[in-house]
Amino acid sequence: MTEPAHYLRRMVDELSSSGELTPEWRESFLSVPRHMFIPEIVWYQDLTIKDDNDLVPLRRAEDPETWLELAYAPRKALVTQVDDGCPVGPGLRGCTITSSASQPTVVARMLAALNLTPEMTVCEIGTGTGYNAALLAHYLGAHSVTTIELDPQIAAYARQTLAHVGYDGVTTVTGNGSHGYPSRAPYDRLLATCAPCRVPYPWVAQTRPGGQVVTPWETPYGAGGLLSLTVSDDGTATGTIIDNVAFMWLRDQRPPRASLCESVYNRDQASVTYTDLHPAYATNFDPAVAIALRVPHCRMICYSAIDDSEAFTVWFLDPSSRSWAKIDYESDADHYHVNQLGPRRLWDEVEAACRWWLQAGSPKAEQWTFTITPEGQRVNLVSCRS
Ligand SMILES: C[S@@+](CC[C@H](N)C(=O)[O-])C[C@H]1O[C@@H](n2cnc3c(N)ncnc32)[C@H](O)[C@@H]1O
Predict the structure, then answer these.
(1) What is the per-residue pLDDT for 386?
(2) pLDDT for the residue numbered 125
(3) N or C: the chain end with fewer CB closer than 10 Å?
């Protein structure tokens, strides 16, 4: 059996050579044994399973080499909990990812985005395995790190692992991270590893003026990104999307589940129309951010054909109004087949948002400015009449 140290060095070398792991974080990544933070059971997606419960458990005891390989895979998130800890499928199979150890490459990019210096304090929202908190503790000293986890079982596991690995000075709080942790505020930096759609104001209030809030931002549509916000003296924070990342929801902002089998009904009664707008506009990062902001409560799911063709189908679902739509792409077509059903004409809304985006000069995701105030969140395109 290959030694964990071999996998650890291979992961760090790969992250360093891609430039994602910056030199100042290399020592921390080499010093924290990631596999010690990974629970005995992890889950992977099995695409051959045809129902919703396609997350299949992998037990370390049954396949230790694969488990270790996954623990040090630079570009894979490792699923560490499904269905809020109660797998809904047979044989511990799960339907929804509810905790994970984030991809090491994304961890490295987010840590670099914090612009930390050694005397700073950090509050992390979403402890998960505790791996990220351990990296922070190695870099800053454990007493400078506070981390908050909503799920009591996950928090207990992380607290225990952090202590075992030598970082018992980390303050691991069991609670709702949306409220922050005022007892140890103000922080120089706040880092979330679960995604809100609306950034909770306590994160801004508990960060020092001049400090930074770095958080993934998620939308029901499925477009999101990594936000970096700077806190001002007036207690507001402003910033932009700085990276393309996808994270699980901050649990208290999680939208209702929307699956094709539950949301798509009466397919033979759907209207049939055609459009010349390329369906890829609905899925590409920059237009998708604009659609997500202009078409509320709409979930987008894209499926590629399983044959060798380039065909794909994009679905749009709003279970609360019982509306759905789909558009089909085929490689040599110049107009595309659309089906819609329900009180909302979801494709028409998405198409209008795409055309607005094109008319606005095809703004990049990073051109949207986010402002967080005690009254809420505003998102504006600086140079655009909205
Ligand atoms: C992607 S995982 C975190 C990865 C983690 N930082 C690591 O190093 O393994 C996201 C975590 O956020 C937690 N979470 C979700 N909503 C939360 C909330 N409102 N407050 C605190 N934790 C939350 C989830 O339970 C989950 O464990």
Answers:
(1) 46
(2) 98
(3) N
**pLDDT tens-place string over residues 270-281:** 999 999 999 999
How many other C-beta atoms are found inside a 10 Å radius of the C-beta of residue 221? 24
Domain count, the chain: 2
pTM of the model: 0.95
31 classed as catalytic: no
C-alpha torsion sign, points 170, 173, 174, 175: negative
Q: Is the CB of 250 under 6 A from ligand 1?
A: yes
Does ligand 1 lie within 6 Å of residue 148's CB atom? yes
Give the relative orientation of helices 23-31 and 4-17 as an angle to the nearest 10 degrees: 170
Residues 230, 148, single domain; the answer is: yes
161 CB under 6 A from ligand 1?
no
Domain holding 235: CATH number? 3.40.50.150
Domain CATH code at residue 338:
3.30.160
**Closest residue to atom 20 of ligand 1, CA basis:** 177
- Domain span including residue 181: 4-80+99-251
Q: Which residue has the higher pLDDT, 342 or 385?
A: 342
Give kind and range of the element (H or E) at residue 189: strand 187-192
Which residues are CB-neighbours of 83 under 8 A, at least 6 positions away?
94, 95, 96, 98
pLDDT of residue 164: 98
For residue range 208-265, what is the model confidence (pLDDT) as tens digits?
999 999 999 999 999 999 999 999 999 999 999 999 999 999 999 999 888 888 899 9
Query: In Å, what is the CA distance from 343 to each residue of 269, 270, 296?
Result: 13, 11, 14
Question: Residue 238: left (phi > 0), alpha (psi -120 to 50), or beta?
Answer: beta
